[in-house]
Amino acid sequence: MIEPAAALPPALDPTLARDAAELQRALSDLVRVVQFRDRDRICCHDVSVTQCSALEELIRRGPLTLNELAQVLYLDKSTASRVVDGLERKGYATRAPHPDDRRALLLTATPSGRELYETIEADLVLEAQRLLADVEPEVRRSMTLLLGRLARATSARVNCGPAGCTTC
User: Fold this and answer.
1) Is 164 left (phi over 0), alpha (psi -120 to 50) or beta?
2) Sequence-ordered list of residues with C-beta below 8 angstroms from that of 50, at least 6 positions apart, any chain
3) Residue 51 — very low, low, confident or very high, per pLDDT cuts 50/70/90?
4) What pLDDT was estimated at residue 162?
5) Average pLDDT taken over every residue of the chain
6) Cα separation of 140 and 142, whole Å?
7) What's the rounded Cα separation, in Å, for the pair 98 and 64?
8) What is the per-residue pLDDT across 6-40, written as a single tens digit (0 to 9) for each?
9) What percentage of residues in the chain have a pLDDT greater than 90?
10) Does the pLDDT of residue 153 top 80, yes or no?
11) Residues 43, 49, 51, 55, Cα dihedral to 10°
12) Nearest CA among 47, 122, 53, 120 for reference residue 88
């Protein structure tokens, strides 16, 4: 009886290595373009890209503590605090005592923060519609599923090891 060939470890599979390199280049290009687009579009609305991301998370997840917000934004606590300071100064977010923890504050998007975020989001969605107009529906759905899967897999590996190691 002939034994089936054992699968190569991922590091030794030349096809996987080539595909991974091509994916890395494509993601790098995409991230660079999206970051530029975000700075160009979002900063016209009196908030930074990071402040917009904070508003998005406060709206999507509901009230968060500063530690929770820092974690979902991949920021340290002091940077997240400065982001929230700016949002609060502009009237887009508030801090209130946490009902279950006297040491913590809950951060919430204000109605004007929600309105601002909805305006920005509508602009970005309209741009995405223009980009996807000539792409087949099945491909659009597959792209969305794939990008979501990549985001979740990447997120699961961020800061997964000791001392913030990101190579595990």
Assistant:
1) left
2) 73, 75, 83
3) very high
4) 46
5) 88
6) 5
7) 9
8) 666 666 788 998 998 999 999 999 999 988 888 88
9) 65
10) yes
11) 100
12) 47
pTM: 0.80
Three-state SS for the chain is CCCCCCCCCHHHCHHHHHHHHHHHHHHHHHHHHHHHHHHHHHHHHCCCHHHHHHHHHHHHHCCECHHHHHHHHCCCHHHHHHHHHHHHHCCCEEEEECCCCCCCEEEEECHHHHHHHHHHHHHHHHHHHHHHCCCCHHHHHHHHHHHHHHHHHHHHHCCCCHHHCCCC
- Paired tokens of 33: 């373009």
Q: Which long-range contacts (CB under 8 A, 24 or more apart) does 93-97 make?
A: 93/54, 93/55, 93/58, 96/63
Domains of the chain (ranges plus CATH)?
A: 45-149 (1.10.10.10)
